[in-house]
TrEMBL record:
Its cofactor is Mg(2+). The keyword Lipid biosynthesis does not apply. Keywords: Hydrolase, Magnesium, Metal-binding. SUPFAM superfamilies: HAD-like. It comes from the Bacteria. It comes from Sutterella wadsworthensis HGA0223. Belongs to the HAD-like hydrolase superfamily. CbbY/CbbZ/Gph/YieH family. NCBIfam families: HAD-SF-IA-v3. This is HAD hydrolase, family IA.
């Protein structure tokens, strides 16, 4: 891909699910299992992937209630979470190359934070079973912290302000059109991450239409765009870089 026509950011705002961790298949498996118990209409994992990727919990609750006949939405969401936490403990891993990339970004002096439509409980479970806390500390922001999650600009603006940077000094990495749209609305540059994309070219097209400056399929590509590795050198071939 061509070099990114943007200056080096002072702050990198990363989405969590689908960027830091490849969690969407696990979440969709849990969604389908919970709806099978509580709903009057079946939900497949593939349907969950298309409907809920990048969406907030509030959006999901509304869809399950009105389209899938879930009467006890609180019970359904709790069952979904119980199933998901078990899957996290068994199967959740960071995205290939991520830890090495975060190490290089931190060495370069770029501030790091997370801005996710997931609730704090899900984020806590994610960070409990990975090595990510060492890079982000408490700089983990959720849609629960603002009035409106992505695609509204609130969350990205909140994250930038909490980190002490202007929107023009930040760069968002997100795998969903709603996240990219939120960055665009906030006046923050963005890259669409497609390294975990299972929805094909239409999803990539949607990311660009939402305002992404470019697409990246790996963290090697991110480091290359930022000038933190050589053109023919793999920067992140070790996903267990020291923290």
């Amino acid at each position: 891909m061509p070099a990114l026509p943007m200056s080096w950011p002072k702050l990198l705002i990363l989405d969590c699910d689908g960027v830091l961790v490849d969690s969407e298949p696990l979440a969709c498996e849990a969604d389908a299992a919970a709806v099978q118990i509580f709903g009057t209409k079946m939900l497949s994992s593939a349907q969950a992937m298309k409907r809920f990727t990048g969406k907030s919990a509030a959006y999901m609750r509304d869809v399950l209630t009105h389209e899938f006949g879930v009467k006890d939405i609180d019970g359904c969401m709790q069952k979904k979470d119980d199933i998901l936490w078990g899957l996290y403990r068994e199967k959740l891993h960071t995205t290939p190359g991520l830890l090495a990339a975060l190490h290089k970004l931190r060495e370069a002096g770029i501030a790091l934070c997370v801005a996710s439509n997931s609730g704090h409980q899900r984020l806590e479970h994610t960070f409990a079973v990975t090595d990510l806390r060492a890079f982000f500390g408490n700089n983990i922001f959720s849609a629960e912290d603002v009035a409106h999650g992505k695609p509204a600009p609130d969350l990205h603006l909140y994250a930038a302000a909490r980190m002490g940077f202007k929107p023009t000094e930040a760069l968002v990495i997100d795998d969903s059109p709603s996240g990219i749209e939120g960055a665009s609305a906030a006046g923050i540059r963005s890259l669409g991450f497609i390294g975990t994309n299972r929805l094909g070219k239409p999803w990539e097209t949607a990311l660009m239409a939402a305002g992404a400056q470019d697409l990246i399929s790996s963290f090697d590509e991110l480091l290359l765009k930022l000038g933190l590795c050589g053109k023919f050198q793999s920067c992140t071939n070790d996903n267990t870089a020291s923290l």
